[in-house]
Amino acid sequence: MTHTPTSGSTVSGPAWLPGPRRAAWAESVDRLRDAATTEPGRLRIIGAVLALLVLVFGAVTAWQISARSTAARDVATRSEPLSADAAEIYRSLADANTTAAGGFLVSGQEPAAVLRRYQNDVHTAAQLIANAAANSQGSADTQNQVTLLNEQLPVYTGLVETARANNRQGLPLGGAYLRYANDQMNGTLLPTAKKLYQVETGRLHDDYAAAESLPWAAWGLGVIALAGLVWAQRRTYLRTNRVFNPGMLAGTAAAGLALVWLVVGHTWARVDLGDSWDHGGKSLQVLNQARIGSLQARGNENLTLVARGAGAAYEDAYEKGMTTLDGPRGQKGAGGLLSEALSLADDSGGRTPVQQAVDGVAEWRSRHAVANGDDTNGDYDSALAYVIGGKDSSGKEITQTTGQSFDAVDKGLQQAVDHETGEFQQTAGDARDALTGLPEGAAVLAVLAAAGAVLGIGRRLSEYR
Amino acid sequence: MNGSSGTGRSWRRLPHRRPRLRGWGGVAAMAGACAVALTATVLPLLPCDAASQGAQPSQGPGLARAQQVSVDDSCAHPEASLRPSSASGDAVRRIQQRGYLAVGVDQNSYLWGYRDPETGQIVGFDIDLVKAIAKDVLGGDAKIVYRTIPTDQRITALQQHSVDMVVRTMSITCARIKQVAFSTAYFEVGQQLLVPKTGTSVTGFNDSLNAKPVCAASGSTAEALLESQSHGAQLLRVPNQLDCLVRLQLGQVDAVLTDNALAAGQAAQDPAVHLIGQPLTQETYGVAMNLGDTDLVRRVNKVLDDYRAGGANSPWMQSYNKWLAHNLPGVTGPPAPVYKD
């Protein structure tokens, strides 16, 4: 790459030779300057600039609105379902663990219903994890959590199976395996599932923000293009006293329509998106948290009995979970997440199932107080009967258990989740529909507006021939 | 809940397990036998033995004669307890007024104190002893509240009076007698290594442990032993000795250190592991109580006296034959009580 001094001076362009490139652009500038001094020349320039402005407005509108339309579609069809899936992964895993711990409390062989519930939970979790993997779309954060879940879930189920096999042989080693499995669940799987939920919910918020962000560039260009068109018509009017230029007028109308469509359509979509969050998304977040809270309370209630006298920490965790779910003990009416869910539910379809959950929790807490009192006073058999059913220490069959209350709470919350998901899908779908056709329409209108401006100017130009 | 069906089930359980234990029996039973034989005969001659002078550790029916030893600061006889008495003091009256006996037990020590998954009841050698004590203090249909506690919570539970006594394979040691009161000894054990039968390079409690992960229960005498003589082993602490067997089966540790009585319970649950080497310590199990409950200590010692009496038909021997004889054979009787007053 070394050059001799002579060839180097040739490349840099000696000053005594006329530069061919400089001459080319200088000439066109000169030509423009000459054109601008004559009216036809000025008209041509104005026409070109107006057409360009309107076309750029159309292109930017199409681009910005299709980005927002994609984001609005993603809210409804991708990120919200994935966020809900992540919550369901967490719920299934926690439910599997709670069910396994509950199965351990049952003497002898686990009932078929317990086994089936555990298997369903694991099946659901595995399916949703695979789904999350397929939809991770290059998000390294999602992939990391999914990989970890994929690795850890078989380890967990393996430990539970070993626990079961030992239990069946009458060996206490089964209990030790179950404790270890519980540690793995609480130490690895659930925190990973929680992180996945946070990542997916973060993507939901990103999509909301992308869909709702104001298209300033399109708005600004629209206003400038319209102002340019109006100015050009006023100029024509002042110079020729002709009030109307049909071409320019049509162009202005098209550009104006595009701008109005842009502002109204997107604002409409923003309102719908806001509604979908206020009347669906927010409720879903609270309801999902409530479901997880009730599961954790149930899990800790079971573990208190599994630990048998050494369960003070689990009892505290139960009480903490219940307080988060329903407010402090002994208060009137619902508190905590459930009262939040009640106030967020905006119709009877949403309120009724939440109210069922509230009633279930009240019943659960009063039954738990009886069970816990028995446990503290050393009547383990009665405590166990109040939690999972069976005969108490006096041989009486206990039919009203905390397990039934928990199931009622879970059922109510599940129905509420289904209802709010429906509302969410409805309004989020409306938001997407509000933007339908807007990018294409804006592009067509911009082309029409540009054509109108060019035709209008052309008509004026023809007067000079 | 239902006593008769519970007994019926446990009656079926033992014969069902017997063939499997016979199969396992060869090496491990011999190791167990050696352990007990060594504890009883060889160890008293070793310098590390704390009880070689006053106590008579060799066991046998009718040999359980009481010894009295002098107690000084050197702690030569941690197992020396208070003379038995059936007089009721504050502690005994407290239990009688409350109406139930709160006992700290374990639900993981197979054959000693464990939850039978089939019946959901806690059973074992320790539990038989608890029932004998409860019957004496509270009468025929005594109510017992079992509180299962982790190994490292035994002393705290006693000090806080959340249990009246701990009957949970608890070794009497010089450090512990400063914190809690013990009854007379009711079983003799020694720390021993438990390893897989195949595929291990651990040969004993020696430098073959170097850089290998070894498991022990937190707050156990095994943990203390590994802390003082680690042989380069990396100590993994878990809440319960049975958690060690889980780690061993999962390949997370190369060996488990616990006493041979508990290790025999582990080996009985997994035919692929066995005890190696000789017992490293000589320890005795005792019923632990609050230091202030001296009347209860004497009462329990009186129960233990009755429990040991009767030679081959003593309640002690009956319980031994029911729970331990298959996996911890060769014991001919309880250790003799030693008193300090």
UniProtKB/TrEMBL annotation, chain A:
Keyword Transmembrane helix: yes
Keywords: Membrane, Transmembrane, Transmembrane helix
Protein name, as recorded: Secreted protein
Stretches that traverse the bilayer: 43-63, 213-231, 243-264, 441-458
The organism's place on the tree of life at top rank: Bacteria
From TrEMBL, chain B:
Pfam families documented for this protein: SBP_bac_3
Keyword Transmembrane: yes
Cross-referenced SMART domains: PBPb (SM00062)
Residue ranges constituting the Solute-binding protein family 3/N-terminal domain according to the UniProt record: 100-327
UniProt key word Signal: yes
PROSITE patterns associated with the record: SBP_BACTERIAL_3
Ranges that cross the membrane: 21-46
Keywords, sorted A to Z: Membrane, Signal, Transmembrane, Transmembrane helix, Transport
Top-rank lineage group of the source organism: Bacteria
Record's signal peptide: none
Similarity comment: Belongs to the bacterial solute-binding protein 3 family.
Protein's name according to its UniProt entry: Glutamate ABC transporter substrate-binding protein
Record organism: Streptantibioticus ferralitis
